Amino acid sequence: MGLQSKQRGYSLLELVLFTGIFTVVLGAVYLMYWTNQTTFTRGKSAIDVHQHARVALETMAMEIRMAGYDPSSPATIPLQPVIAQNCAADPPTGSGPSAILLACANAITFIADVDGSNVSDRVTYRLAGGKIIRDFSSPWGGGPWPAATPSDLADKVTGLSFTYRDSTGTVTATLANIRRITITVTVEETKAGRTETFQPSIDVRLRNLS
């Protein structure tokens, strides 16, 4: 008698069961991947927003710290427009500009050679449309001050505040008395329906003012 082969194919029921199990497993793997990818993307987005806020804060601190470094002694700076409430503005009179031209709750204008060109620059930091804007102007060749060139320093910002203090640490609204400035940036990130607030701050001493 010849040997009978014991091999046989899969039945239709087994194929259906295998396909169903494979589909469930594949779906679970995909769901896990999608969840991890979404979490990673949200986390990376939050880190990027926080990092941009910190970079903006450090940039502002570095330049504001130089307020009063004025190697070119330019002509009197015209009065800056009041762009926020609770502002103190330098009057457009006198033989030369003050280091701080405008001191607002959410904006500041100051004079300093921030780019190392031996020509004093006029810099404004302000909040507009969820962005920190840096307005820069420099009178090359001793001519009149040109229109400021704006640039975005950071976006997704919900708050920018400046607190002005004198040499004793007391809050002041007198431009000539400002010796320290606390800068605070507020960023809000919404994740899973919950809003988280990130609010770094830095204290700056104006080292060129006596």
Report on the architecture of this protein:
This protein is α+β, with helices and mostly antiparallel strands. The chain has one domain. The protein has 1 helix and 10 strands; from the N terminus they run αββββββββββ. The strands form 2 sheets. The chain has a 6-stranded antiparallel beta sheet with strand order 1-2-3-4-5-6. Strands 7, 8, 9 and 10 form a 4-stranded antiparallel beta sheet that branches. The longest helix has about 55 residues, at about 10-65. About 25% of the residues are buried. Mean pLDDT is about 75; it is low at about 75-85 and about 90-95.
Short summary:
This protein has one helix at 12-64; strands at 88-89, 100-103, 107-112, 121-128, 131-137, 149-154, 157-165, 180-191, 194-198, 201-205. It has 210 residues and is α+β, with helices and mostly antiparallel strands. The longest helix has 53 residues, at 12-64.
Poorly predicted ranges: 75-85, 92-97
Q: Radius of gyration from the CA trace?
A: 30 Å
Anisotropy-based shape: elongated
- The tally of strands reads 10
Strand order of the largest sheet: 1-2-3-4-5-6
Total individual domains: 1
**Counting H and I runs of at least 4 residues, what is the number of helices?**
1
Strand content: 25-35%
- Helix content class: 25-40%
Average residue pLDDT: 77
Largest sheet: 6 strands, antiparallel
Strand/helix succession: HEEEEEEEEEE
Distance N terminus to C terminus?
A: 114 Å
Helix/strand/pairing class, anyone?
A: alpha+beta
What secondary-structure arrangement, pairings included, does this model have?
Blueprint: H1 12-64, E1 88-89, E2 100-103, E3 107-112, E4 121-128, E5 131-137, E6 149-154, E7 157-165, E8 180-191, E9 194-198, E10 201-205
Antiparallel strand pairs: 1-2, 2-3, 3-4, 4-5, 5-6, 7-8, 8-9, 8-10
